[in-house]
Amino acid sequence: MTKTEILSLLRHSRGYVSGQEICGQLGVSRTAVWKGINSLKEEGYQIEAVQNRGYRLEEIPDVLTEAEIGSLVTGEWAGRNVEAHPRITYSTNLRARQLADAGAPHGTLVAADVQEGGKGRRGRAWAASPPGTSIAMSLILRPRFTPVKAPMLTLLAALAVRDGVEQVSGLRPAIKWPNDLALNRKKICGILTEMILEAEYIQYVVVGIGVNVNQTEFPEELREKATSLRMEAGRNFHRAELVARSLAAFEHYYGIFLKTEDLSELQEEYNRSLAGLGGPVRVLAPGGDWEGTSLGIHADGSLLVRRPSGQVEAVDAGEVSVRGLYGYV
Amino acid sequence: MTKTEILSLLRHSRGYVSGQEICGQLGVSRTAVWKGINSLKEEGYQIEAVQNRGYRLEEIPDVLTEAEIGSLVTGEWAGRNVEAHPRITYSTNLRARQLADAGAPHGTLVAADVQEGGKGRRGRAWAASPPGTSIAMSLILRPRFTPVKAPMLTLLAALAVRDGVEQVSGLRPAIKWPNDLALNRKKICGILTEMILEAEYIQYVVVGIGVNVNQTEFPEELREKATSLRMEAGRNFHRAELVARSLAAFEHYYGIFLKTEDLSELQEEYNRSLAGLGGPVRVLAPGGDWEGTSLGIHADGSLLVRRPSGQVEAVDAGEVSVRGLYGYV
């Protein structure tokens, strides 16, 4: 998309870039460049145009658009194909599934500024946030490994967003196994991984990620449970930058994961950020709750919990809930 | 739906049913009855109307409509909610997934007279048939068991369609494990089960079923592999009857399955129809092909195959293909 490429050029240039230079590098007409620049201005970019020198990017808006995300993505495949929505009445996961059903490639990203019908695990609602404050995104993956490995993708995504958050904000979230990130024991990110399978064959996986970035407050019922990067750091963050950094980190971790098809090379990294590691946890199992000590994740993505008797159990996400000693469930 | 109920009433009455009787039984107005009757006539039903006696069903068309299927369904939940399409440009599975995503209940059925974008396993094409000849249908299930059990639903569907075919035609198809039915070593039915999961939680399952009923021929490339009930029996069959019988059988087998959440009470039944039981099979495994003797399915839905060494292996659908000594792959 020309607009994304123009933005990318402007973004990565010091000083001015002449219209001619843009035409040459992108192989497009003057008119196309002019149209692209105007369209970017309409989206909120401040672009200075100076006779005989060219264009310069003065200010970048905090928008989740195809151009903004696309011009920041650095990886080979994650986010190379972006569909962005100002508002989506259902969820980015559902939209990603529609695209995947229609053949969208591995690495396609759906992002929304406002997601009205977001879902947490098991159909729980994921509250919508005001425009300009949060990230709702879903990444389409087409892995060739067996379905039993797919739940580990949630853990990779948690690691990736942790890195993205740290890179843009300096804050280092804890991971609440398996699928949330927290700051000061309040949720800043939730991950919902859905997979579409035939018997033992993965058609595709959609990793849905919601991040609280620039919210200044939450509704009453979430106040004890949720926080945002802004509320923790006292300043705003550029969401597309966080998206791009998280995608790059995801691509990195995915590559490591594929080598062994498990988390053996990442479990230490994960456990370093694991909330409640070494502390008491309550395991909510169908056959009855019990308490133990969290020993961190196993290479297969399960959580190892030591019973008072000394016996260590590998607890699977989905089968049980684990509650630690922090502020939200 | 009034039309379905009127049709059901006419269908299950001997002789004439008066308009007043229909109004009374269904609690609807004379006008509604009149409209329903007219609409049925437009769909091809021949309904005789005699002054002072009422209506009588003279002839029933071979249509896959909501009214026709709905008036024949006998079970508690399978097919209680039907959406029928004269033509669907994609597939009934995809449509069923849309409905399930929007909240359609357990047992909802999508049926199509012509399915243009049908899919077999792993994205293989499933050829469209001329109008009025085949069945394409997808059943939405919302089981509460764990995902690892879901592939067994394919085997239940195979049993169910086998029963449906036998009840309407007297023919008894063989089951090609795990997901096809065959007559004279040619395919008459294929089943594609798709499941939408979070980690260890089933959102829903769609069981897609295609049946060759009244085709008189197949395209060149399928001639050796496919047949229809008509081509085997020399006469046409009423497709909605086959749908309804298959759904009733599915509901029956599903109930048995739920008791143990495995096939322990159905494996004998399944093996009785299993193509190639006791004969040589070739197992196409990722690590290399091998040959053995088919011993029938295990209670978990896997196929037991004895190697020449005497060792018995449980072979999972999806991981391997199995070829027997019959006409299609």
Task: Provide an overview of this structure.
Two copies of one chain form a homodimer. Chain A is α+β, with helices and mostly antiparallel strands and 329 residues long. Helices cover 30% and strands 28% of the residues of chain A. The first copy, chain A, has helices at 2-11, 19-26, 30-42, 66-72, 92-101, 152-169, 229-233, 239-260, 267-273, and strands at residues 46-50, 54-59, 81-88, 108-115, 134-141, 174-176, 180-183, 186-198, 201-212, 280-284, 290-297, 303-306, 312-315, 321-323. In chain A, the strands form three sheets. Chain A has a seven-stranded mixed beta sheet with strand order 3-4-5-9-8-7-6, sandwiched between helices. Chain A has a five-stranded antiparallel beta sheet with strand order 13-12-11-10-14. In chain A, helix 1 crosses helix 4 (66-72). The longest helix of chain A is centred in the last third of the chain and has 22 residues, at 239-260. Chain A is elongated. The relative contact order of chain A is 0.12. Chains A and B meet through helix 5 and strand 8 of A and helix 5 and strand 8 of B.
